[in-house]
Amino acid sequence: MNIIKQLNPRLFWDTNPDNLDPEKSRRLIIERVFSLGSMDEINLLLRHYGRDVITKDITRVNYLDPKSLNFAAKLLDIPRSSFKCYKRRQSQIQHWNS
Question: In this structure, is residue 86 part of a structural domain?
Fold first, then answer.
């Protein structure tokens, strides 16, 4: 069964979910579910793709909000420093708040 049909269509608000291929669009699907999805949808991804594939893909996404990043790191038991989005954020110059 197509995993995309089992996910809430609101996750793909900017694209037509019918045009997504579960393998070719895997990183987008994983990113959206971890950012906006429910725990049931995350568990669905884990069953469909497996922990290793999800770990590989989610550590390569360009952006995760801090809450989603921390959640993914804890759930998958990997350090935040392994995430591309964490490294990018750390390399940006931080201005002092006044």
Answer: yes
46 in a structural domain: yes
Rounded to an integer, the average pLDDT of 46-59 is 95
The pLDDT score that the predictor gives to residue 55 is 95
CB 45 within 8 A of CB 29: yes
Print the domain residue range for 76.
23-90
Does 37 map to a domain?
yes
pLDDT average, residue stretch 26-34: 94
Going by C-beta distance under 8 Å and a sequence separation of 6 or more, which residues neighbour residue 69? 80, 83, 85, 86
Q: How far apart are CA 63 and CA 18, in angstroms?
A: 24
